[in-house]
Amino acid sequence: MAHGVAMQDQGFLANTAGVHIGPFLYLGAKHMVTGYDHLLYLAGVIFFLGRLRDVLTFVSLFAVGHSITLLFGVLSGFHIDAYLIDAIIGLSVCYKALENLGTINLINPKTAVFGFGLAHGFGLSSKLQDLSLSDDGLVANMLAFNVGVEVGQVIALAVLFGALAWFRQRPSFPAISTTANVILFAAGLILFAMQSVGYFFA
């Protein structure tokens, strides 16, 4: 279910040919705002970032990494097993939650965000490749799709940042933050387990 593409969208993507900037922009944005794995990870990334400048720095690193592998994977045909990469994405959520809880700090946070952005991009590119996209207009369509992903990311982050800013003003925020990141870790672990089972048994 990670990086899922709705059935009607799959039909459009698989059967379309030529350049369709508008629809691919829309589908990219839709993917991001409905992609729970992306949202879980980004929520963890900005959880303790109170300054907009810091949010922009970290999210830009994620966006660059995500864009590189999304475009490279689809345009070059380089493919990674979807179950395997989605299991890694689950671990990225776990790692960020543990980092927020102060129990782990193995990698420079900016390096980790960029690296996990690369993994998230491969996750989406693997799903798009499974749809056998037409080569006619592929470069323009993928660029539009990627721009749409970033637009969707801005929309999702605006909501997340506003909600977290409100929670930071609550006296109970320290307790809330601990509980939220434990839940974030559990969600990442469940995603990792589901995809691992798929990788070994599907």
List keywords for this structure.
202 residues; 0% strand; mainly alpha
Please explain how this structure is put together:
This protein has 202 residues and is an all-alpha fold. It has one domain. 79% of the residues lie in helices and 0% in strands. It has eight helices and no strands. The protein has helices at residues 7-15, 21-34, 36-46, 52-76, 82-101, 109-129, 138-168, 173-201. Helix 4 runs parallel beside helix 6 (109-129). The model has no long low-confidence stretch (mean pLDDT 87).
Distance between the termini: 14 Å
**What is the total tally of β strands?**
0
- The structure class reads mainly alpha
Helix content: over 70%
Calculate the mean pLDDT score and round it: 87
Could you write a compact summary of the structure shown?
With about 200 residues, the chain is mainly α. It contains eight helices and no strands.
Give the secondary structure arrangement, pairings included:
Layout lengths: L6 H9 L5 H14 L1 H11 L5 H25 L5 H20 L7 H21 L8 H31 L4 H29 L1
Helix pairs in contact: 2-7, 3-5, 3-7, 3-8, 4-6, 4-7, 5-6, 5-8
